[in-house]
């Protein structure tokens, strides 16, 4: 159809707009090529670093150096991109740089898209190889047999507390694995299904996830029954196979199993976070903002725990976590797990460790590692 003079599409404003868009897109095309050149230059330098490490026998993954890289970048960052976006970009740049040196194999508690898998991807990015295992013990075993370079295991959840299976494995292999990094993952549970909410009769999820959403589920699905399964991702898989069922699982599980999200963020507590440990053959070098994880066993006598805690107090060391765990080999005795601020190379940490060596029946430094940022920070 021919355009008349009164046709608004014929006036010059849209033409100008279109021309402006072409100019701006031209700028983006140029910038993209420049970015591409720079990221590949960065990767070439990382490859050279890899050669130096191969000659000197250094590890490909350095949690301390990666923290330094991220701190430098975030300090300089002024927007307009969000911090989350910048972190995601650098996570993948670093992931690719590691893979150029040597592709890292990461063992995690499966199945795919479990929260352990999401935590592992948050730490190691898309360029790593991920090996899922059926249980937490197998993550440790994969590492000890050198089938994996690193393992990712859950330590504690803000709602459910400690993860017993992980602590038990540290007790079983006290000297064979070290914590080299920690990951804080915000756990966001969603209700996933391929039917309407009113049609849901059964809800599957991991026991802990069902318990973390208990109030929401009973209020919003009064006619449904709740069934614990081995993982949230497995629950999502089951939804594909049965009618009128839903799963409590992650957004990523919804994408993987092609399910709709009926309700978002259904956990009863708005803050739900799981802390994971990255385990490897060695721990991390000092960054200046570090934590140390320790496991110790004390005699079953009055005041022995108080004496240990006093040693921390006297050296002005802040404890960030403490858990007691029954020691299987001696009835009534306990093993304690503590996390505290500082690196094992710090003078005051060395002092407290020396005191503990004298006081305790056994002391194992599980590792020093950079303080994790909160998910999204
Ligand atoms: C390049 C290095 O190797 C790895 C990759 C890093 C990066 O891409 O910046 C940083 C630390 C290492 O995990 C390095 O050690 O500097």
From TrEMBL:
Residues 105-281 form the Prephenate dehydratase domain. One of its GO terms (molecular function) is prephenate dehydratase activity. It catalyses: prephenate + H(+) = 3-phenylpyruvate + CO2 + H2O; chorismate = prephenate. CDD domains: ACT_CM-PDT, PBP2_PDT_1. Residues 293-370 form the ACT domain. Gene3D superfamilies: 3.30.70.260, Chorismate mutase, Periplasmic binding protein-like II. Pathway: Amino-acid biosynthesis; L-phenylalanine biosynthesis; phenylpyruvate from prephenate: step 1/1; Metabolic intermediate biosynthesis; prephenate biosynthesis; prephenate from chorismate: step 1/1. Pfam families: ACT (PF01842), CM_2 (PF01817), PDT (PF00800). Its EC number is 4.2.1.51, 5.4.99.5. It is found in: Cytoplasm. Keywords: Amino-acid biosynthesis, Aromatic amino acid biosynthesis, Cytoplasm, Isomerase, Lyase, Multifunctional enzyme, Phenylalanine biosynthesis. Residues 15-105 form the Chorismate mutase domain. Its main location: cytoplasm. Catalyzes the Claisen rearrangement of chorismate to prephenate and the decarboxylation/dehydration of prephenate to phenylpyruvate. This is Bifunctional chorismate mutase/prephenate dehydratase. It comes from Gemmata palustris.
């Amino acid at each position: 159809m021919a355009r008349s003079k009164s046709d608004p599409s014929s006036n010059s404003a849209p033409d100008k707009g279109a021309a402006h868009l072409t100019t701006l897109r031209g700028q983006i095309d140029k910038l993209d090529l420049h970015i591409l050149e720079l990221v590949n230059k960065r990767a070439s330098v990382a490859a050279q670093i890899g050669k130096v490490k191969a000659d000197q026998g250094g590890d490909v993954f350095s949690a301390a150096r990666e923290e330094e890289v991220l701190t430098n970048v975030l300090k300089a960052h002024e927007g307009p991109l969000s911090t989350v976006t910048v972190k995601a970009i650098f996570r993948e740049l670093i992931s690719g740089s590691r893979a150029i040196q040597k592709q890292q194999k990461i063992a995690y508690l499966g199945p795919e898209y479990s929260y352990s898998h999401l935590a592992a991807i948050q730490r190691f990015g898309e360029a790593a190889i991920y090996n899922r295992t059926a249980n937490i013990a197998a993550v440790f075993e994969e590492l000890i047999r050198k089938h994996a370079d690193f393992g990712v295991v859950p330590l504690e959840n803000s709602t459910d507390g400690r993860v017993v299976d992980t602590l038990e494995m540290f007790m079983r292999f006290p000297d064979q694995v070290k914590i080299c990094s920690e990951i804080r993952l915000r756990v966001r549970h969603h209700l996933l299904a391929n039917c309407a909410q009113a049609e849901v009769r059964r809800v599957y999820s991991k026991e802990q996830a069902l318990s973390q959403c208990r109030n929401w589920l009973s209020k919003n699905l009064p006619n449904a029954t709740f069934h614990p399964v081995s993982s949230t991702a497995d629950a999502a898989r089951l939804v594909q196979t049965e009618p009128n069922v839903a799963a409590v699982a992650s957004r990523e599980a919804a994408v993987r199993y092609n399910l709709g999200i009926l309700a978002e963020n259904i956990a009863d507590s708005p803050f739900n976070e799981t802390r994971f440990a990255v385990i490897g053959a060695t721990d991390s070098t000092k960054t200046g903002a570090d934590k140390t994880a320790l496991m110790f066993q004390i005699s079953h006598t009055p005041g022995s725990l108080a004496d240990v805690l006093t040693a921390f107090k006297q050296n002005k060391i802040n404890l960030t976590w403490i858990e007691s765990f029954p020691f299987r080999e001696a009835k009534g005795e306990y093993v304690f797990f503590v996390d505290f601020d500082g690196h094992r190379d710090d003078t005051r940490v060395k002092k407290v460790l020396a005191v503990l060596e004298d006081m305790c029946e056994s002391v194992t430094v599980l590792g020093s590692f950079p303080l994790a940022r909160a998910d999204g920070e």
